[in-house]
ATP-binding cassette domain-containing protein
Amino acid sequence: MTDLDKAEQPDAAGPRDDVLLRVEGLKVHFPIRSGLLLGRQVGAVRAVDGVDLEIPAGRTLGLVGESGCGKSTLGKAILKLVPVTEGRVEYDGTDVASLRGEPLRRMRRHLQMVFQDPMASLNPRQSVETILTEPLRAHGISYDKRTRVRELLDAVGLPASASAKYPHEFSGGQRQRIGIARAIALEPRLVIADEPVSALDVSIQAQVLNLLEELQERLGLTYLVIAHDLAVVRHVSDEVAVMYLGGVVEQASADDLYATPRHPYTKALMSAVPVPDPKVEENRRRIVLAGDLPSPANPPSGCRFHTRCPFRQPTRCDDERPQLRVVETGPGGAHKVACHWAEEIQAGTVTPHEVTAQDVADAEAEATV
Ligand SMILES: Nc1ncnc2c1ncn2[C@@H]1O[C@H](COP(=O)(O)OP(=O)(O)OP(=O)(O)O)[C@@H](O)[C@H]1O
């Protein structure tokens, strides 16, 4: 069975055997140092604070959340680009943390990243040909330069003449195509795309997203697509995970999550998305969250979202951190939510109340881990 055939199989609530990437209890805490020569650790930024994720082969998981919630750090931790404090990253059944030297280098071939800003991630002094062949040289892979460069450019919709040019000679969208060509040069299986279109004009975004989808189909790629923009994630994802302050608060198939968001934070995020139908748009009720994202150096106790949550119930939300749990399994697969009151909110027995900026400040003052 090919990866693509496997990807046709329906989701199940239990563990699946076609999982390419599995993340368990992942934590990335950056030490905060103080004192002379910054030698003493006085705290930690809990950028990622206990994340579980699974991506089946050939599928796309979209990861959304506001700036600073830990999305990029999670992506980097999967690629071992930042040190993991606790937890496990398993790629194709192998614990990534245990790999060193040659096995790590070999594994890296299969996991590649597409970055937000192609101008910053491409070396301005290298020609496109050098940019595209450097990963092959670094991994000691023999290739016919002209043929391989032409194949890669063709795969991302650029002409062979692009080969001799430099990044500044291209538009933003073309540069991101070069970044994508570089990412697929080593024939990876998993690609982590961190805000792949947020630096691009809206008119160009769809073209680049379509290219990512086309390459997925042709090459059987598995994607983790990180974005703050819900529309971008919806466009490309089979499943979507919503992150808030270092943790995943909701995960479901894209259709289920957009049709029936269940976590209060997801409800607020979704309420901000404009609806194309003018009648629906007119009646759309925006949930505006009071306060800002709390500092990951000093996260609230209990549910990380309780300080801003319109559905907060004393005192369980303040004291007990909810686990991400399956609340429903439908045709789209398992719908997981990290909220103590997910069922009651759905049934309408727990209802929203107004939260003011002062309420948030008071709750934050009371609630530190
Ligand atoms: N190397 C680092 N050292 C210390 N703190 C860091 C480091 N990298 C990230 N952080 C902090 O970790 C938190 C999460 O950052 P991260 O970049 O992962 O969030 P994000 O959701 O990707 O946001 P954005 O979209 O703005 O990049 C932030 O508070 C950030 O300041």
The chain has 15 helices and twelve strands. The pocket of adenosine-5'-triphosphate is lined by residues 30, 45, 47, 65, 67-73, 228, 296 (CB under 6 Å).
